[in-house]
Every structure is written in structure tokens, then in C-alpha cells.
Design a protein that fits this description.
- With 299 residues, the chain is an alpha/beta fold.
- It folds into 2 domains: 205 residues, von Willebrand factor, type A domain (Rossmann fold); 37 residues, no CATH class.
- It has 8 helices and 10 strands.
- A 6-stranded mixed sheet has the order 5-4-3-6-7-10, with helices on both faces.
- Strand 3, helix 3 and strand 4 form a beta-alpha-beta unit.
- The longest helix has 25 residues.
- The N terminus is likely disordered.
């Protein structure tokens, strides 16, 4: 069980991540981080005819129209990656009931990935978004950059109330401001108003985007706790419910299943790979599982 992020310093958190997560990943992935980060192609080289194994995002539609045959842009491999973390820090991200909260998982994930990337000479930056607040940490390399990211995350206030989260401004800001093709992690619980799907799809056309969805088991399965008052973590709205009612729990489970299916479809339509991170799952196991999935899709 990891200690609460707010109860430690950036240096201590990074030491814990190095010992408990990164060392284990080194053994499980055996240094093959390219299975996670294959967004190397950034320098345009030439055009060639489309082949069935090509990524359709690289189709040059202007040339395709002129030649009456699909053509794709070919890029020269660049070993330096610039990665960005787009971070949803809305009130619902502070929910958690098992081992830790979703925000603590977010901090650990950002620290782990930033450390893995920067120690191989890459640059990382972040965009923090919550209740109209938007802060950008420019992309830089080195261990001090990781500590800066962690420090900023730990200093972000936990909002007690806020309107329903809108992820579109965060995604559109990244689309407009990140010019160089980059590896982008969108980290959120995706409890948000509709409309962010189009911005995610547009962002993925220009960059390599990975969606990291934070969730807690109690958001998916409601135990029999009798009559309780439930509160919306985003708006503060409260309702009285009887969790002992089997029909209520069944309706809750059905609504959860529908939301899961809608999220899966949204990620598929946007063409992004999605990693699901639970508050009660071992992060090493989750990252290794995700790396295996990406490796399989590239075969």
C-alpha cells in the first residue's frame, strides 16, 4: 500500500517509486520501454503509397486526392521523446475508498512515467486543469523536472465543489499549444460533460495519445450499506438512497456497465489506447499489462 501523496515530499515519493515500482518494471519490461513509448517518428522524410499495415493517421489527403491513390507520410525515427501529461484535477479525482484515492494514483503514475522517460534523456511537461484553472509546466528533462512536476501536483488544492468537469478546454489547449509531435497522456476519471471525444480525436491525429482512466471499485459496485446519503463529489448534490434495495443496486450496476461501454467506444472512435488504473490494483501489473497490449497491436 502506498502512503498518501500529500503526507510526503516530492523527494520521498520519488524514492519510493524508484524502489517499489520502477525497479520492478525494469525487471518485468527488461528495458523494452519502446513497447510503451513508440511515438518516435517526428521528422518528415518522404511520401509513399499506403500499405495495409500503415497507420491511417499518416495518410496525406491532399496527395491522395491528386494521385487518386492513398499515400502516407513517412517519418525518420527520432530517439528523443517529448511527453506531456494532461491532468484532470477536478473534485471527483479526489474520491477513493480502498487503498488510496484516485489523486494519489495519478501522482504515482505521473512520477513513474516521468522518471522512466527523463532517465532516458527525454523531456516531460504537464498541463493541470481544474475548475477553470489551467497551469502549464514547460517540457524539460532531468530528475529535477520530475521533482518539479511532483511538487506542483502536491501543492494543488483539493476543490470541495465545482461545476461538472469539462475536459474539452484542456484538450483544445494542448492541441493549440503543443506544436512538435509528442507523446501525450490524458489522465482523468473521465467523469465529465459530453463533447471531449472530438477534441481527443483531433489531438490524436497530430500526436500519439494515451488515455489513462482513473477509477475506484466503489464507483462500479455498490455494496449493501442500508439507507445512506450519497453526495456528488463534483457538485455537492446529495440524495438519500436505500442500498439494501436489490433493484436500486441492479440499476446502479446497469448504469455503470453502460458508462463503461460508452467510454470504451469513445476511446476506440478517437483511436487512442486506454489504460485503466484502479485504486486497488498494483501499478506495475497494470503498466506491464498495458505494454503487452500495445506490443500486440503493433505486431
Amino acid at each position: 500500500m502506498s502512503m498518501p501523496a500529500a503526507a510526503s515530499t516530492p523527494e520521498r515519493i520519488l524514492q519510493r517509486l524508484d524502489w517499489q515500482i520502477i525497479r520492478r518494471l525494469d525487471g518485468r519490461l527488461q528495458g523494452d520501454y519502446r513497447s510503451l513509448f513508440y511515438g518516435y517518428g517526428v521528422d518528415f522524410a518522404d511520401l509513399r503509397e499506403y500499405q495495409p499495415t500503415d497507420d491511417i493517421r499518416y495518410i496525406d489527403w491532399n496527395v491522395t486526392a491528386r494521385m487518386d491513390s492513398p499515400y502516407v507520410r513517412h517519418y525518420v525515427e527520432d530517439r528523443e521523446i517529448t511527453a506531456w501529461f494532461l491532468l484532470d484535477l477536478s473534485p471527483s479525482v479526489d474520491f477513493g475508498t480502498v487503498k488510496s484515492g484516485k489523486r494519489a494514483v495519478l501522482v504515482d503514475f505521473v512520477g513513474t512515467l516521468a522518471r522512466l522517460l527523463t532517465r532516458h534523456g527525454n523531456h516531460v511537461g504537464a498541463m493541470l486543469h481544474a475548475d477553470g484553472m489551467h497551469r502549464t509546466i514547460p517540457a524539460r528533462g532531468g530528475r529535477n523536472q520530475v521533482l518539479l512536476l511532483m511538487n506542483d501536483l502536491l501543492r494543488q488544492p483539493r476543490l470541495k465543489r465545482a461545476p461538472f468537469t469539462d475536459l474539452s478546454p484542456l484538450l483544445i489547449s494542448a492541441l493549440n499549444s503543443i506544436k512538435r509531435r509528442s507523446l501525450i497522456f490524458v489522465i482523468s476519471d473521465f467523469i465529465a460533460v459530453p463533447g471531449w471525444e472530438r477534441a481527443l480525436r483531433l489531438l490524436n491525429r497530430r500526436h500519439e495519445v494515451m488515455a489513462v482512466r482513473l477509477w475506484d471499485p466503489r464507483e462500479a459496485e455498490l455494496p449493501d450499506l442500508g439507507s445512506i446519503i450519497m453526495e456528488d463529489s463534483e457538485t455537492g448534490e446529495q440524495i438519500y438512497v436505500d442500498t439494501g434495495d436489490p433493484r436500486f443496486r441492479r440499476n446502479f450496476a446497469e448504469a455503470t456497465t453502460r458508462r463503461e461501454a460508452e467510454l470504451k467506444q469513445a476511446f476506440e472512435r478517437a483511436g487512442v489506447d486506454a489504460l485503466s488504473l484502479s485504486t486497488d490494483e498494483d501499478m506495475v501489473r497494470a503498466i506491464v499489462r498495458f505494454a503487452a497490449l500495445r506490443r500486440q497491436r503493433r505486431m
